[in-house]
Amino acid sequence: MNTQPIVLLVDDDADLRDIYTLVLEDLGCTVATARDGQEALEQALARRPDLIITDVCMPRVNGLELCYRLRANERLRDIPLIIHSSEHALIPPRGEVFLHKDGDVSRFTAQVALILGGGRDGPTFASVA
Predict the structure, then answer these.
(1) Fewer Cβ close by (within 10 Å): the C or N end of the chain?
(2) How far is CA 22 from the centre of its chain?
(3) First-to-final CA distance of the chain
(4) Domains of the chain by range and CATH?
(5) Interatomic CA distance for residues 18 and 113, integer angstroms
(6) Is 102 strand, coil or helix?
């Protein structure tokens, strides 16, 4: 049984997916990735991740539409979401967590640790700051 939390990372920028995958793996997470909201929905249904981190501006299905579709799905609505975007004037839907994509990895890891701290048989990330 895999005790590592599963994080679905959604971003159309391959370089950013690679960078944040490494950051998440360093936290002890298993990382699945998607290039847009449509792929993310398929991945979420297949894997039921512990956390979804999504960009906003993406082709096909953008990050905000992804949030709405996840919340409308009974199987997926309780998955925590982080909207990770360079957009400045964004009001996240339904109280989702918003992190500005500014390269501050410590704030990113702290937010992930806060959300995953003890999630679904996963490790506690309380030491991450």
Answers:
(1) N
(2) 14
(3) 28
(4) 6-116 (3.40.50.2300)
(5) 19
(6) coil
